[in-house]
Amino acid sequence: MEENNFIAKTPSAFIAYLWEEKKILSESQYRRLLNPDTRVEDVLSSDELIKCNEQYLLNELKTLRGTVKYNM
């Protein structure tokens, strides 16, 4: 079964950002999520996953807005 959330497809740099900068993840969650065999549902509660998804969407929006400004 394919996971539909961002963290399963997210580079480790973003996972580190959620841990170090945003303090959304604990160190143990961070380390467990770096393992590609770990299921996200085994590490994060639904509230934590929502926070991570919100942060991901905000970062994507900032990137898209920057790209639009640059290309205009």
Topology:
Layout: H1 12-20, H2 27-34, H3 46-71
Helix pairs in contact: 1-2
Walk me through what this model shows.
The protein has 72 residues and is mainly alpha-helical. It has three helices and no strands. The chain has one domain.
Radius of gyration: 13 Å
Q: Pairing-aware structural class of the strands and helices?
A: mainly alpha
Q: How does the major sheet shape up? A: none
Tally of discrete structural domains: 1
Low-confidence spans:
none
The string of secondary-structure elements, in order, is HHH
Q: What's the β-strand tally?
A: 0
Strand content: under 5%
Helicity range of the residues? Answer: 55-70%
Q: Report the average pLDDT across residues.
A: 80
Please tell me what the overall shape is. elongated
Distance between the termini: 41 Å
| Annotation field: number of helices | 3
Keywords:
0% strand, 72 residues, 60% helix
Q: What's this entry about, in short?
A:
This protein is mainly α and 72 residues long. It is built from 3 helices and no strands.
